[in-house]
Amino acid sequence: MDKRAGIFRDYAVLKPVILRSISKNQILILSHACSKSFSSVTKILVDLSEESGIPLSTLKLKARELREMKLLEYGDSKVKVTELGKFVLKIAIGHENKVNDN
Fold first, then answer.
1. Which residue segment(s) compose the domain that 66 sits in?
2. Average pLDDT over residues 20-33
3. Which of 22, 28, 52, 94 sits 20 to 30 Å CA-CA off 59?
């Protein structure tokens, strides 16, 4: 059996790679989108901007990047963190923390 096949079973191996690929602001957006139900990305970003003090323009850019990476879906329907987005968030915030399915 190939020893490399099991390398991704340990999320700790992926965490440094994920954290170099995604910003703290993007992690905040994904986490905020998972924690509450929002009808638009603007509502998420305004809420997050007010809570954190991060400029809205910065959050808009980071949300667009998340959509381009297929981690966040928004547009015509409710904002949704994709399965890949949930996986990335789970690794980024720690395997022990549960990611909501909202």
1. 3-93
2. 92
3. 94
